[in-house]
Amino acid sequence: MKRLVILESPYAGDVARNERYARACLRDSLLRGEAPMASHLLYTQPGVLDDLLPHERATGIQAGLSWGMRADATVVYVDLGTSPGMHFGISHAMSVGRPVEYRNLTSGGPW
What we know:
The chain has 111 residues and is α/β, with parallel strands linked by helices.
């Protein structure tokens, strides 16, 4: 059984670059033998939720937090820094006792 992890990486700002980076982070996690969930990448796809609408953003955040209750760890990819949304996810993980790991990608940049 693969280890379930919540993946934290930036989304807002340079969305195109951050989506490329998140995909690289997903790949890194998968190649480590993990089963990552990147709700910020999944739920913001066209036709799903609009991250710019506060109520839809909140819906996506709550869905990700709910999934996270089953996760074994939160992994935070920090090559591009940490965003307020990432800080929220980190704080939540710590508040429920989920381990938090910080990572850098070893290759693949610039994104």
